[in-house]
């Protein structure tokens, strides 16, 4: 999640929480966000985020690593809030027959609903998509 406008920029799904999963999500975010540098990348202290491969990729991209304090879930509150919203607004009550159905539902929530239709108070009650469009218009006008 890009905290500037609450947009989800990187996605990856797998059967388990592995370093490959977070590396895939990071690569997706890096490509979709236009290959930024100097980004502060925050995560918890899970082994997948501490892995050498993940940390090397962060360094390769020129990102600054930020990790939650040990045992403190509040440091990652924006992402934890997102997971809660996705579960309540989209997934609760659904029973998926296949992992592919679940993957499609998550993609639809993020790419169709959350980023493009769901308004956010922190964005002045506009969607992340609209927020970034407005931001781009302002920076081009300046």
What's the short version?
By secondary structure, the protein is mostly helical. It is built from six helices and two strands; from the N terminus they run αβααβααα.
Please, could you describe this protein's structure?
One of its GO terms (molecular function) is nucleic acid binding. One of its GO terms (biological process) is DNA integration. With 142 residues, the chain is mainly alpha-helical. It has one domain (19-141): Nucleotidyltransferase, domain 5. It is 51% helix and 6% strand. It has six helices and two strands, in the order αβααβααα. The protein has helices at residues 19-32, 47-50, 52-61, 77-91, 99-114, 128-141, and strands at residues 40-43, 64-67. Helix 1 runs parallel beside helix 3. The model has no long low-confidence stretch (mean pLDDT 92).
């Amino acid at each position: 999640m890009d905290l500037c406008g609450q947009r989800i920029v990187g996605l990856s799904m797998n059967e388990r929480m592995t370093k490959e999963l977070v590396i895939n999500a990071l690569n997706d975010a890096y490509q979709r966000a236009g290959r930024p540098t100097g980004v502060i990348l925050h995560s918890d202290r899970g082994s997948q985020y501490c892995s050498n491969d993940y940390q090397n990729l962060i360094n390769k991209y020129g990102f600054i690593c930020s990790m939650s304090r040990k045992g403190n879930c509040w440091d990652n509150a924006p992402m934890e809030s997102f997971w809660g919203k996705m579960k309540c607004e989209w997934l609760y009550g659904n029973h998926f027959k296949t992992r592919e159905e679940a993957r499609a539902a998550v993609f639809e929530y993020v790419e169709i609903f959350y980023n493009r239709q769901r308004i956010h108070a922190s964005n002045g009650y506009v969607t992340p998509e609209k927020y970034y469009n407005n931001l781009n218009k302002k920076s081009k006008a300046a």
